[in-house]
Amino acid sequence: MNNFSETTKQYLKSDSSLFIDGKRCTATGEEITPVINACNGKHIYSLRDASNSDVDAAVAAARSAFNSGWKTMAPEQRAGLMLEFARLIDEHSEALSELESLECATPISISVSTIRYWCAAFIRYYAGWVDKIQGDTIPGAPFLYPDNQFLAYTKYEPVGVVAAITPWNAPVAMLILKLGPALASGCSLVIKPAEITPLTAIYVAELALKAGIPAGVVNIVQGKGETVGQYLSGHTGIDKISFTGSTAVGKRIVIAATGNLKKVSLELGGKSPFVIFPDANLEDAVPAAAMACFFLSGQNCMAATRLYVHESIHGEVIKVLTNIAEAMESGDALNPKTQLGPLISEKQRQQVHAKVEKAVEAGGVLLTGGKIPEGPGFYYPPTLIDNTEVSMDIVQQEVFGPVLAITTFGDDIEALITDINSTIYGLSGSVWTKDINKALKMVDAIDSGQVGINSHAALIPGVPFGGNKQSGWGREFGYEGLLPYLKIKAVTIKY
To answer: Which residues are catalytically annotated?
Structure first.
């Protein structure tokens, strides 16, 4: 803790677990959730969970702020507040990065670059949309009004109070990508961050308040998904839910949301393919394959954990991949040299390891990794499993760890496409080749919300992101990311 900035040290002295109507407050729930440092397994923080009455208070504050002026605020004023919010994220990026690396063990180099350069840019992007949310005029109906004294137009309005439920793997970025379009649309929010990574949420909410965004527009409730999250999902005061997390939890949220038929958008699991054809630039493709799988220790939904490599280059590819994997430097998240942090918990590590062992038992060939290291923390090495087949769980199911399943393919492209589309997921993927015709045919054939050609999962604010099949509903990012936070109204005038 001694190496932290003074801002971070002071923040860690607070034990507030709620931020409601512009103020920190103490939760009244019965359960207390510990925060564990995944790098050493030591306890660093504890927060009391919110009670149902705490959630009710947060929803009421969000509704009051929405109705009392936020939804009708002049676009240029709302955009100005968002730009100031982005500036403050820049200004406080050091403390936010330290807190994120502490609570979820993201290597500090990644936290800094994500928060300083991506998060602030994302808010600025949506600030630019505020005065461009506009409807259409529609031609009249001469069979009804021969004199043509008829006008119809549409307008977009904010959907209302949003419940945003965010995951633990990139807490600041996941929070920001909900805030950007919601604020731009004129919605207010009640946010429930993952219970094991609660430290950054209130900090971000306080920055929004400091930027001038009215009290009650951004509220934070802490607690477990099965209690606080479940109650929030079913709350009749919520107009929309935006959830990022596992497919299993997403299905439970859908059921909970049926009471008042609230809107739901879901960004769920993935099992992204990474396809290398023999004509690909291997100097680019192979390091990219390693990064696509091992980034955030594989704990991200768009991780490319299925590698399809043509049989003619298989030996060359796995040789380079193995060298990259074995050279990656694991260590404490706050060390700037660390490339690979630990997994989030011992439970997660055991689950990842069990999937690796099952894959080897089923005939997979372990090239490197696959062993739980000695010492403190929840580290797991970059792991390569060759000779995998489409029927194996390691190919079909999300692992959420640094494990790459490698499958070779021949010249039967139709068989390759069938294998790629065999999973329940359809979030992301990439194709690596110099043949643009082949690349575009693969793009058309892969059932996925995002496909890269010679790039993988480029998270650009203006490019829509989301999944097909059981990877989710709806899209985030871009203009498409605004639409779930808006409702359309048709107006007809006879004059």
So the answer is: 267, 301
